[in-house]
Write a structure and sequence with these properties.
- The protein is 49% helix and 16% strand.
- The chain contains 14 helices and 10 strands.
- The strands form 3 sheets. The chain has a 4-stranded mixed beta sheet with strand order 1-4-5-8. Strands 2-3-7-6 form a 4-stranded antiparallel beta sheet, with no helix packed on it.
- A hairpin with an 8-residue loop joins strand 4 (164-170) and strand 5 (179-185).
- Helix 10 (237-265) packs parallel to helix 12 and helix 12 (311-336) runs antiparallel to helix 14.
- The model has no long low-confidence stretch (mean pLDDT 97).
Length: 379
């Protein structure tokens, strides 16, 4: 599939935004360990934060395909995977409210976040819990007009800066049927950001451990029906996994472009690196794997937008893109030689950032098990 005129225009404006507002500052933000709040306002003014959200909740009314087009251009122009994770956290914090939330939640959380005025995060993962969403142990017990929340969350993207956290809590029986989503706001007594977490990659994207000790949250902050949380989370799995696939082939494509340019400039033994057949073959293989991942991911995204069930295919698209990315960023560092190993070199950043992509949004092994069941390859 190819992009239409509106999507091409969106890509052009996205490239211009990244080159103007992000690329000159990205290494400084990597060193600082966070993204400035002002960037959210700038991105909102540029029409980038709400591309795939309905106009009636403050978005631009596009589809997942528009979001894919935006992300491809974002990475092509030099945006990092970590920067995208931190800047577009609303993409995982808001969809449940946009689709099932109350009018009050739309006005209090969705619109301000899409306008860049607030930052939201999604808290599902727990210490020792990993990808086991059905095993959530953080509890929320109804007490009059409030829920009293106790528990802990970890690896929460944008959790340090977040004004609110869309939190998976247990309100009912064990297993997936007893989970709800509850919006917990910064400043709620008993809700604490315990610490920011230092990571291998995604340095500019703050990541937090959160704790809840008798945190009293208004019952009006319940998203959708009580005990429907697992299904609300699952509704967004396809979109999240496609987004991570775009992260993967997006930074891979950027790494290939940087490497091809470096191989033209770098001379060894009297010749540019690109004059050597072994280098040419490496670049071709990098290109092949990126294109295969890109075409497959776009195809799955288009099927999802058309209303088809593509849960297994989204898992496979993510795995295909992640494996392509792993290969490409490794070769990019290798072909850059010692330069590629230096901290602050862009391919070194992509190499580090890529490692989380096979873990986040469902580890590859967990998603392969799920795909086996969905595709009928189990007893």
């Amino acid at each position: 599939m190819t992009w239409g005129a509106d999507q091409l225009a969106l890509q052009q404006s996205t490239r211009e935004f990244v080159r103007r507002e992000i690329e000159p500052h990205l290494q400084d933000w990597e060193e600082a360990g966070e993204i400035p709040r002002a960037l959210h306002l700038s991105a909102a003014r540029a029409g980038l934060l709400g591309v795939s959200f309905p106009e009636e909740v403050g978005g631009q009314g596009g589809s997942l395909l528009d979001s894919v087009a935006l992300q491809e251009a974002f990475f092509e122009a030099g945006g990092s995977s970590g920067l995208a994770a931190g800047l577009f956290t609303g993409g995982i914090a808001l969809p449940h409210m946009a689709a099932h939330g109350s009018a009050e939640q739309i006005e209090s959380f969705v619109r301000p976040t899409l306008a860049g005025q607030k930052i939201g995060s999604l808290a599902v993962t727990e210490p020792g819990g990993g990808s086991d969403v059905a095993g959530i142990t953080t509890t929320a017990v109804r007490d009059g007009d409030s829920y009293v929340v106790n528990g802990a969350k970890t690896f929460i993207t944008s959790g340090v800066r977040a004004d609110f956290v869309t939190t998976a809590v247990r309100t009912g029986e064990s297993g997936h049927a007893g989970i709800s989503l509850l919006v917990v706001e910064r400043g709620t007594p008993g809700f604490t950001v315990d610490r920011g977490l230092a990571k291998m990659g995604w340095h500019c994207s703050d990541t937090a451990e959160l704790s809840f000790v008798d945190a009293r949250v208004p019952a009006t902050n319940l998203v959708g029906e009580e005990n429907s949380g697992f299904y609300l989370i699952a509704e967004q799995f396809v979109v999240e996994r496609i987004a991570l696939a775009v992260h993967a082939y997006g930074i891979a494509a950027r790494s290939l472009a940087l490497t091809a340019a470096y191989c033209r400039e770098r001379r060894t033994f009297g010749k540019p690196l690109i004059a050597r057949q072994v280098v040419q073959h490496k670049l071709v293989e990098m290109h092949r794997q990126i294109e295969a991942a890109r075409v497959y991911t776009r195809h799955v995204a288009a099927r999802h937008v058309a209303g088809e069930g593509v849960v297994a295919e989204a898992c496979l698209a993510k795995q295909t893109a992640v494996e392509a990315c792993d290969h490409v960023v490794d070769e990019a560092v290798q072909l850059h030689g010692g330069t590629g190993y230096m901290h602050g070199t862009e391919v070194e950043r992509h190499y580090r950032d890529s490692r989380i992509l096979g873990i986040g949004g469902g580890a590859t092994e967990v998603l392969t098990d799920l795909s086996a069941r969905l595709l009928g390859y189990t007893p």
